């Protein structure tokens, strides 16, 4: 790669008949008004400038060979090309208004620029105009209106997006890039929405590929890709400021309306068209949505007996009450828990700082350094509700790019700071105050057992002054000394547990990083006969949790993986048929390599009617946690599936299945109860035991077929239809095994009596192993989108998506949770300029009901009801002041909706925004 860059630099220094040019001009619209901040770029060169508030521009460049072409473009205008034949030419350009961009230029589908109409796979784009006119509170919230996009809200500052099924609140199957940088956190192994990333002011566009994109983007793009592009400081100069304030929690029971605010600033400037920089700062703050669903979900209580009066109640968003015990003569009783609002930090914020330096080495090559700092607080729904409190994510990016290549390196680092597990927090607080029957506070290790003893004594009438046979009176007595929320004792116990990591506290510690380098080169101009693109990547994970999650107290966990791809394309039949083939090879040091091919064909009829077909593949490497978690939680050890993680334990090779062990222990117990001596009972029933056959973990796999049609009819109606079918294998799952001290099998290949004796004597350890399911499942779906340009600038759009999951003969416990509604629809209607600078936009979303499966509820189903929501905004543009005033709201009818079981219900946000955007010349 170093040699390649050197060759490019040498070639770039050779300019035959080149000369210095200084052209100037004016850019106006069809009515003669100046167009500010229009881009003026030399075609196929890294040279350009922008117009000032009067529409004037000057472009000064060295070593350009005449003649050449400049491309003039502006938001909301048709693009114009002008040929330059003189080194001091004056240009007067007029840009006709374009109401919307129905034929967008996209890059993510093939990693090179092309018309979205001729994309070989489904692709959605939100351009700059759509971002500006977005009615939702933030740009990221507005992504849900894109066709096929799914969104799940865990927090005011954290929303997760996905496409084509197998959704989750922490989605490690969907890749999110910001300027080519993977926005995932190294420890969580998924992107935390837009808690970190780019501010709304700096986003130029967002593209979405629904479905498998591993052939070009590697292992994380299993379900799809979101690629966010920020604004180039050469093209977008000047000062931009956004002031937004609003309210949420409107009309909520037990709460008054809360204020929230979002401030953003962007400044960019270039010097001599060679050096440019940009600075961004944004800060969003408010009161988070409350998770206050207190439905009793006790798995040990019949459904008809559940409710607020159930002594064994396990409420969904109350924590600590999942600690329960069946008491003789009484029944199931759970400890008194704490509501989430007393444990979670609901004062959330998102701080994003960004700085970038751009230097044009010559007319073809540009060097970039970018630094991003993000810090914030959000609530996340996983196996528990986690408080990502003061979580920090930092990235450094270095990039060298030209018209046909780029080389990029970056590092992503995290610090979890004060983050914690609320369920664990409640349990630890509950163990700090329990008194025995003499009024003495017991140790945390004895607290739960002592609390149940107190409850039993009070209920059975052995405590003076307590009404016997009363669950309420018994609980009141058992809770004597309980730390009450808001007291100094409660706050002290809470803080101590938050900053205690591992098994002895609720704190979550990670100071992990990953290093990534990738690049690509387009050989098309050199070959000419066909298109050829090649690229590759290398990533190193460096994990550190100080023993709280991995066995890494003395040495960090390091993982290397790399990938390389080729893509070739050829046009046939008078350029009406485009065939493209891609293949990628990826290798993680802990697994066999994976090939992921993609084949596609696009056939164009009558210039605007495009039919496409593709075969796509996807794979997902197990995350670092899947590979190397090593967490001993007392009776069971959670163990990642990388071979080296259990090299000295002999667990995968020497263990019994938990199902056979349970059956064995039940049979032995029955025999002993019938008078059989224990050794005899064990010997008679040992053959019930089954040796486990748990393979080491490996990547998940997907194969997908897609058919589509996309057309622009009469420059007014955009039609996009697609159908897909996907099959999945090797879903990552957990299985429990029993590891005895003795070998599982004897020399005769049968169950070793000594190993069976170990189980009877308790000489074994439980392990929860990460592995893969052999079951195969499939999913299919279809979507259709229509966008129509009405008269006088009105724009109407609608789309609908059908998603169907086919479990077949697979075991539901071996499959990732689909978590996707069968039907979802969106509709939009707006006009950026109705009259005298006034505009508006309305977006409506509806989706059908479905069951949500997640670890938060023990992978038991929780119903997500069908819902609809409407976002709307009206705005007034003040061109002379370079300012827009916007009044709007998300979910304006204030219907409180939950998008994932256990996550908070989300209501309306009403806001007013002031946006100042002044180009600088």
From TrEMBL:
Major localisation: membrane
Keywords noted in UniProt: Cell outer membrane, Membrane, Receptor, Signal, TonB box, Transmembrane, Transmembrane beta strand, Transport
Record bears the keyword Transport: yes
Positions of the TonB-dependent receptor-like beta-barrel domain: 371-892
Domain TonB-dependent receptor plug intervals: 118-224
Record localization: Cell outer membrane
Domain of life: Bacteria
Membrane topology: Multi-pass membrane protein
Signal peptide: 1-18
Gene3D superfamilies for this protein: Carboxypeptidase-like, regulatory domain, TonB-dependent receptor, beta-barrel domain, TonB-dependent receptor, plug domain
Family label: Belongs to the TonB-dependent receptor family.
Name of the protein described by the UniProt record: TonB-dependent receptor
Lineage of source species: Bacteria, Pseudomonadati, Bacteroidota, Sphingobacteriia, Sphingobacteriales
